[in-house]
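Could you please consider the sequence and fold following this short note?
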Amino acid sequence: MTLSITSDDPFFKKTLTTILLLVSTISVFSQTDSIDVFIQNQMHKRKIPGLGLAIVRHGKIIKTGYYGLANIQDSIAVSSKTMFTINSITKAFVGVAALQLVEEGKLKLDSSISEYLTDIPETWKSVKVRQLLSHTSGIPDLVDEEEAVMIADNFDLAWKKVIAMPLDFKAGEEFRYNQTNYYLLGLIINKLSEMSFQEFITKNQLQKVGMEKTIRSGFGATKELVPNAANSYQFSKGKLNNMFFSFPSPLQTAAGMSSTANELANWIIALQNMKLLKQKSSLEALWKPDLLNNGKTAGFSRLLNGYAAGWPTIGRHEHPAVAPVGGGRAALFVYPKDDLSIIVLTNLSGGSPDVFIDELAGLFIPDMKETNGFEMSPSAKSLKVILDKNGYKNAIEAAKKLKSKNKNFNLTESEINIWGYKLISQNRLKDALELFKLNVTLYPSSANAFDSLGETYAELEDNTLAVKNYEQSFKLNPQNKNAEQQLKILRLKL
């Protein structure tokens, strides 16, 4: 059955209502608690059909939750048995496999891949194993990431094509997500373990943890007939559609596994209790982000700003984390210093649970709450305390007073902009407006600052001031196509 419904479709609205009613949890908390409410709100906001949750605190699972529909077409609720595709979280298992081989003395992360693989292009031979794990190799990709398909009709043709390509960049110069890296890692695991990587991972991780459902699901993603599998969905042009994908066997190191939140939680517990690795140094190496040649880390985004051995990392002073994500639908955040792990699996590509897991963690770690200024600089935090108490109307004056009292007080254009858009997401347009006014005062040469201020005036339907600020943004940056387009629209309204 092919599903295609719009977000305005009565069936979809009815489905969302059903999702909010279908909640099953096992918890040390009350049967329906603040976590359930938070998850339900996120599902409604992001139109996520079904979701599985597990939270680990101090080495124990303290909550599991099953929400919404695994299968919209047949109204099948998510349960403890529901299997979710985890996409690239599979790479985290490959990272553990690599460290297991290191502990066996068979693999060195800083060795060139030519020590383990011979039939590869000459230009690839100096790439280090670590650079495959961290996507900094510069080797071209077998998969067109935008289209999510291989660069040729079958794997053999794609492989012939990719080995004829030049390097994308010198190894270690950049981070570029790349499935070829994990195909090569699979070849290395096959050779050193004398079994397929699927067998090696199953034997040395899944069986040790007792992940029976994960074992049964195999590595074939949506192509395989997996018992209790959640359907996969995505929105395309406003319509919710079924989504299908599968990688050929050689690429299943990159994606392909399915699991439950509960089994992944047990895997994390086993990993941190040193049941999968023997040495603490191995766990540290697993989670240590690789450095580029310039000494910096790089990753997917401002949040996922580094990449370790199959594990994206969140490098920050407060509450750092390692955070495997998969397919825009699944995320697993481990906060090592806080002894907290949160697993959220969904059946919606684009549900992006990685965006809200930090906020969920704030229910356990109060200073991670956005309301307490988490991730803000000391200067922004001090201003926030004053504005939350006295109102945002006097943001410019409050910032001036703080600067006069503290010579180290400094606000960057970027953090003010991010703060302002967070307020917009909370429907606090007038408060955001005052922050954007502050930004143009501090950064009068920034086209982006005036663009944000113009956008907010437009949202408040003050078209005259919206035009004025968009004009200034366009004057500062004549390449600002957004400002140019908005001016055409707004001038018609004057």
Summary: Residues 235 and 252 are 25 Å apart (CA to CA). The longest strand covers residues 60-71. The chain has 18 helices and 18 strands.
